[in-house]
Amino acid sequence: MSSSIAYLTSRSNFLQVSPEVPVTKQRNAEKYDTPEVFEENKKELATDLVVKAKQIEYLINSLPEPEAEEVQDDTRHDAGGRDDYRE
């Protein structure tokens, strides 16, 4: 994700967002993508992020359900383990 953010900040040119705030700096043309290429790459990055989020959600949903605390306590005590938890 950090490489996506780096791309978005380094391969675009500065745009004036307010008439009161002038653009005081420009990048060399070879340092940024054309608006069309930049838009296509933005869409691809957004799609990649959505796919990655869905993969993570699938993995999380594939995890086994946690046992109830009572079952965990019984298992710990049956195994002779110490209960180091203090309130």
UniProtKB/TrEMBL annotation:
It is found in: Nucleus. The keyword Chloroplast does not apply. Its main location: nucleus. InterPro entries: Med7/Med21-like, Mediator_Med21. The keyword Ligase does not apply. Residues 62-87 are annotated as: Disordered. Signal peptide: none annotated. Residues 73-87 have a biased composition (Basic and acidic residues). Belongs to the Mediator complex subunit 21 family. This is Mediator of RNA polymerase II transcription subunit 21. It comes from Crucibulum laeve.
